[in-house]
Amino acid sequence: MKTWDGIVVGAGIIGLTLASELQRRGMRVLIVERGEPGREASWAAGGMLADCALETPQALQTLATASARMYPGFARAVEEASGMTVDLRQQGTILFPEDGTVLQQPEFAGRVLHSSAVIALEPNLAAGNRKAVYLAEGSVDPRALTAAAAEAARRAGVDFRRGETVTGLDPGDGAVTGVTTTAGTYAAPVVVNCAGAWAGQIRGGQAPTHPVKGQMLCLLTTPANGLAHVVRTPEAYLIPRSNGRLLIGATLEDAGFDKQMVPKTLERLHRAALTLAPRLQECPVVESWAGLRPGTRDGLPLLGAGGRKGYYIATGHYRDGILLAPVTARLMARLICGEDCEHDLGAFSPMRFGEGAKL
Ligand SMILES: Cc1cc2nc3c(=O)[nH]c(=O)nc-3n(C[C@H](O)[C@H](O)[C@H](O)COP(=O)(O)OP(=O)(O)OC[C@H]3O[C@@H](n4cnc5c(N)ncnc54)[C@H](O)[C@@H]3O)c2cc1C
């Protein structure tokens, strides 16, 4: 019978990236995925690599910035390892903050854009008199990234079991010895729960996440009517891809595990986008969808040991899982392999809500 050194539960961007990182360190890794790899939150995401201090929880800022810095190297490594492309774009973001007065803060000196500068950067934006700020943030195509991360993991030798749901850790309080799935059991001395919004459903798993629904739609633009930069406003954000797709997102809804799309909500997002960039009226809507972010009670991820020897949790990345994938993989791999971590993960301890916490 084949044995593994580690089992990763869930093949979203977090599980896939971590599995590759562990395999590179010499572990033999199995990923168990109840559906197809990369078809949940990581498929639904916008792909903004947003580490702006205005929007990032303070406790997460250091990790967010570290991960944003890792991205060019990370994207290149995933592309090389998979033979696929991930559409990392570095054109930057034009942010219209909810409260324009924040732009008077010294950290924004030199980056504030008056409306003429906004138009010079993005002629298709109807900026009005709103002040904006330019952020040197990147974006990536999460579907392409996740597909490439899955291929990279496969080529690195990670084993996959698809279509099997992990129902629980092995029973007992001692060191973890494996997982039970809908198809049987798998043994390993290390188990990592990367099951996203469903992480709390694994028996004995102690990973209190909850789903936060996001609806999005996608237009097909041309070079004449599209955008080059990510644009974020309080009403909507717009994310261009190099192939002409332009994503409009996204809602933040407490709707349980419901992934239904609501036409009225999508129309509202669409209208907000047309107000921002009127030439988008020329562009057909080619797709709409909804996904479930893995939320936590305090908005911070769950990263660290999970209360039993050999059991770890890496989930709850809420709105930033695409951004945080590289730093999560590196820090969790170091922790699991007993190496020094360059960042203190204390604020993200999965045990911070108490044993058996539920959301
Ligand atoms: C609309 C929307 C927009 C977003 N935009 C951005 C953005 O612009 N930038 C950004 O950084 N982040 C964004 N996010 C957040 C980001 O998508 C998530 O934080 C990230 O994808 C989480 O990755 P994950 O691997 O933890 O979860 P997921 O991708 O959800 O993967 C979890 C996997 O675990 C599997 N699984 C669950 N339970 C089990 C089980 N019991 N057994 C086996 N497998 C199981 C699931 O099938 C799934 O494949 C967005 C999310 C949404 C929904």
Evaluate the radius of gyration. Answer: 21 Å
The helix fraction, in percent, is 25-40%
CATH superfamily of the largest domain: FAD/NAD(P)-binding domain
Alpha-beta classification: alpha/beta
What distance separates the N and C termini?
A: 38 Å
Number of domains: 2
Strand content: 15-25%
> Largest sheet at a glance?
8 strands, mixed
The kinds of small molecule bound in this structure are: flavin-adenine dinucleotide
Low-confidence stretches: none
CATH class identity of the largest domain: Alpha Beta
What's the count of strands? 17
Instruction: Provide the spatial order of strands within the biggest beta sheet.
Output: 4-5-3-12-13-14-11-15
Per CATH, the architecture of the largest domain is: 3-Layer(bba) Sandwich
Keywords:
single chain, 359 residues, alpha/beta, FAD/NAD(P)-binding domain, D-Amino Acid Oxidase, Chain A, domain 2, 2 domains, 8-stranded mixed sheet, 25% helix, 22% strand, globular, binds flavin-adenine dinucleotide
Overview of this structure, please?
The protein has 359 residues and is an alpha/beta fold. The chain folds into two domains: 195 residues, FAD/NAD(P)-binding domain (3-Layer(bba) Sandwich); 128 residues, D-Amino Acid Oxidase, Chain A, domain 2 (2-Layer Sandwich). The protein is 25% helix and 22% strand. The chain contains seven helices and 17 strands. The strands form three sheets. The chain has an eight-stranded mixed sheet with strand order 4-5-3-12-13-14-11-15. A six-stranded mixed sheet has the order 6-2-1-10-17-16, with helices on one face. Strands 7-8-9 form a three-stranded antiparallel sheet, with no helix packed on it. Helix 3 packs across helix 5. The radius of gyration is 21 Å and the shape is globular. The chain starts with 5 loop residues before the first strand and ends in a 23-residue tail after the last helix. It binds flavin-adenine dinucleotide (FAD). Flavin-adenine dinucleotide binds next to helix 1, strand 2, helix 2, strand 11 and strand 15.
